[in-house]
Amino acid sequence: MATAAVGGAGQEKQLAPTLLSFFIYNPKLGPKEGEEEKKILFYHPNEVEKNEKIRNVGLCEAIVQFTRTFSPTKPAKSLHTQKNRQFFHEPEENFWMVMVVRNPIIEKHKDGKPVYEYQEEELLDKVYSSVLQQCYSMYKLFNGTFLKAMEDGGVKVLKERLEKFFHRYLQTLHLQSCDLLDVFCGISFFPLDKMTYLKIQSFINRMEESLNIVKYTAFLYNDQLIWSGLEQDDMRILYKYLTTSLFPRHMEPELAGRDSPIRAEMPGNLQHYGRFLTGPLNLNDPEAKCRFPKIFVNTDDTYEELHLIVYKAMSAAVCFMIDASIPPTLEFCRKLDSIVGPQLTVLASDICEQYNINKRISGAEKEPQFKFIYFNHMNLAEKSTIHMRKTPSVSLASVHPDLMKILGDINSDFSR
Amino acid sequence: MSREPPPGEEEAPGGGGGDGTARGRAGEGGCYLALCARPVHFEKANPVNCVFFDEANKQVFAVRSGGATGVVVKGLEDRNPISFRMEDKGEVKCIKFSLGNKILAVQRTLKSVEFLNFIPDSPQLEYTQECKVSKCPKLMWLGETLMLVLPEKRSLKLLKNQSINVNWYMYCPESSVILLSTTVLGNVLQPFYFKSGTMSKLSKFEIELPAAPKSSKLSLSERDIAMATIYGQLYVLYLRHHSRTSNSTGAEVVLYHLPREGSCKKTHILKLNRTGKFALNVVDNLVVVHHQDTETSVIFDIKLKGEFDGSATIHQFVLPPRSIQPYQMPVAGPASVTSQSPVPCKLYSSSWIVFQPDIIISASEGYLWSLQVKLEPVVNLLLDKGKLMDFLLQRKECKMVILSVCSQMLSEPERGSLSVIATVFDKLNHEYKKYLEAEQSYTMVVEAGLSRSNPLLKRPVRTQAVIDQSDMYTHVLSVFTEKKEAPHKFTIAVLMEYIRSLNQFQIAVQHYLYELVVKTLVQHNLFYMLHQFLQYHVLSDSKPLACLLLSLESIYPPAHQLSLDMLKRLSTANDEIVEVLLSKHQVLAALRFIRGIGGHDSISARKFLDAAKQAEDDMLFYTIFRFFEQRNQRLRGNPSFTPGEHCEEHVTFFKQVFGEQALMKPTTF
Lengths: 416, 669
Known about the structure:
The complex is a heterodimer.
Chain A: E1 13-15, E2 18-25, E3 40-44, H1 50-68, E4 78-80, E5 84-92, E6 95-102, E7 105-110, E8 113-118, H2 125-143, H3 146-169, H4 180-184, H5 194-210, E9 214-221, E10 224-228, H6 232-255, E11 274-276, E12 294-297, E13 304-313, E14 316-323, H7 330-362, E15 373-376, E16 381-384, E17 387-390, E18 395-397, H8 401-414
Antiparallel strand pairs in A: 1-7, 2-3, 2-6, 4-5, 5-6, 7-8, 9-10, 9-14, 11-13, 12-13, 13-14, 15-16, 17-18
Helix pairs in contact in A: 2-3, 2-6, 5-7
Chain B: E1 33-35, E2 40-41, E3 49-54, E4 59-64, E5 71-75, E6 82-84, E7 94-97, E8 103-107, E9 112-117, E10 126-132, E11 138-142, E12 145-150, E13 155-157, E14 161-162, E15 168-172, E16 177-182, E17 188-195, E18 198-201, E19 205-206, E20 225-230, E21 233-240, E22 252-257, E23 265-271, E24 278-283, E25 286-291, E26 296-300, E27 307-308, E28 313-315, E29 328-329, E30 343-344, E31 352-355, E32 359-362, E33 367-373, H1 376-381, H2 385-393, H3 399-410, H4 418-447, H5 469-483, H6 488-504, H7 511-523, H8 527-535, H9 543-551, H10 558-570, H11 574-583, H12 587-596, H13 605-614, H14 618-636, H15 648-658
Parallel strand pairs in B: 23-28
Antiparallel strand pairs in B: 1-33, 2-33, 3-4, 4-5, 5-6, 7-8, 8-9, 9-10, 11-12, 12-13, 13-14, 15-16, 16-17, 17-18, 17-19, 20-21, 21-22, 22-23, 24-25, 25-26, 27-28, 29-30, 31-32, 32-33
Helix pairs in contact in B: 2-4, 3-5, 4-6, 5-7, 6-7, 9-10, 11-12, 13-14, 14-15
Protein name (chain B): RMC1 protein
Domain Regulator of MON1-CCZ1 complex N-terminal (chain B): 51-143
Region (Disordered) (chain B): 1-22
């Protein structure tokens, strides 16, 4: 959150926290001396020299082992040093994820020379522990568990999947803008009157009936959740993916006026604003690829693999999730488009209208009187009047970073 | 089969008729029309027995030997026949009772009518009066007043005399309206309305004839006109035969709406798409058209959607043509001791005479039936469920059929799609809401004491078409959810659809429906769905629902908080909230809550101290104990408990744990 805020006197410069390294290892994979490299499943940055990688992994292993003697069920979660902080997370048995974050620095000039002052107490453990856990959840959403990869093709497959996923994902971490909201990893729900909500329910049920291969559906408006057929934990991470990655990616072309969504080219078809955010771009192209991202849900019990179809009309987005064993055809996509498109368009304008009425009644257009962050751990509902808008790269908190830090401290005090 | 007997021919033709075979299209199934099971059986017309039918009282008169050997009067409603004797003073031409069977009018000659006071259970009639009139009158009872129509003078005579040239006339006893055919062509109809002895002239109207007649002769026959009340409104029904000159595809029935005030207007056209001999009945607000050539009937419902041609709404028949359901005549009389099998009745026989609104008489067999519409077969003939509901909702005996249609569309093999189900629910709730609104505005008027100033105000009638939540729950939804045949997704979707529909019509949803939703969700471990429904208040707050949630806590822990939140929102359940919190040993939370609503001065100290002790948390006990000491101090100026508070054991316990000196000292000023 402390992004390059230029200090007052003495030409101080603040350097935000950055990711130093990120690695995943399994001590069981190379238990013998001399085989330590085998333990390492993923290491970022990859350029680091092999021995250093082994050394760092070994150190983490040792710390975890050492702290385990004091608390067998809860080994160390983080290690504070002057320059950086390390976070440990064991999402699956013997699989360890480690994230090393450099503390923020104040760069001062003394006698014309730069002097670096590490701010050891600036980072909040809970925030970055949560970020690390989310890294795993996100990986799991798109790849399934580590164990599943091992079963599918051993270490080789797991390494490939980790490399493929984290190589890109780590670039989107934006550690400098992480704050209390990352601890909650909550879901923002769209406020709605009962009748409109019931209409949406009715719409979803009918769509699931018409497109009978749909297993789960989620419905969002204005990047806020209205309905989830998925279980809470799966929805939580899918929501994060949608709102921090998929939607922003598609927002920009819309704002730029490209890719005009209105499509009148289909004769006889009702004009509507529906389009696919995942899957085929142009339904009229017979060569169009109907490839959808695969996601993994309910990994604790039924372990389901699904295709994620995200379809949007105006501000309303629907995620249809279908069993991965049924590949969606172009024909299916056209059917979906012709059924969902017109109805979703109508529904989206209904919601918009209702929303505006409610806003006028409640006078929500005014600046909120109180600044607050609300989180309900039962339904993960989250609301903040502090954050103007949370994008993946920038967190626009309207209060001073110090205040955010205090809030974070209070939160961790209460949850201790 | 004639549309109506011509004047003076009310005596049913004797003999002839049935060849004893029930042809028709019964084989195709789905006969939606039937003759009533308990017809009026009378002695067939024969040379010594004359049969008369009185439309006003719906009575059949069997007059044997001019009345000397007995007159038997039977009606559909009155199950006990009236029988009496009268002196045979010649052939009876017409015989009718006044309303209530008090006065009998008998016409034997063309010029006179006799009146007899009828006393029940008396074998003989008391002769009172004989009225001589000029020539050939026609009898018509208007309540207790008799009207004589004198065809000779072509005029009509009551207390007041109206002189009009009349071709023929027709009287509808239900509405007390008489229709006179005037002008040369006969197509200008003049209606009169009778009420308590007075007669008012309604505005006359012209029936459009199919083609301009070539000659100036009577072109509108009485046989092609009928009057009937449909949906509470009087209509004149005109059977317009197919004419070669017009390009119509067949005959049609044209309905003229005849209001008490204002002019008569052509409003509906019923397309028959066939030609030949027809007869009309009106049953349950449906126009039934019998077709003799095909021995089938069709029905029309003017409330169903039709095509508007700029002046009238054009209707096609609702259901495919079907024969009246085959009817077995029990073999009556002493001859049938050798158990003979019942004889099938010849339907659509040429000896049938049809009367309004729903009477069919077979003179040859000696039967009088009322025609009935059977709704069960309609279900399989009208596949469009929305249209089916529109049709059923207008029928008198519709409730059980509608409920069975609902059950049917929710289960295999004829499971309907959700959009069809939604349409059906919406139609039912539309009707339900109409009733609720009428009931509500009635209550409001009564409560405001305005009922006396408005004598027309009546409590709205609850027809069978009002299918409320309790009906749906008992007969459809609870059965459907219990069967567990359908996938749970479908079950929940159906319940939500019903709740959506109720909400759409702003009908308050009953708690048991929510309970059904909650139970179904819980059975399938869909707690997150339940949570989301509660979050958007789809399941409205109520104490029973809060208690149900509370009971779910062991399988879904967040239900506890959801329940408390709901109780708090209800704001009438403060005691329950305190109890719930205390039962969870959340004594401080309970105390804070009660203080928040300002009730902390009147609560029982013992209750809270009990809960604190059970929590086995000394510090908690200390805090609670101190709170009440302070309350005692504030309220009574002394921190000690009064004997009435029954806290002795807690004081002892406190002393045990914290020592005597820990008790609060009374502050002295």
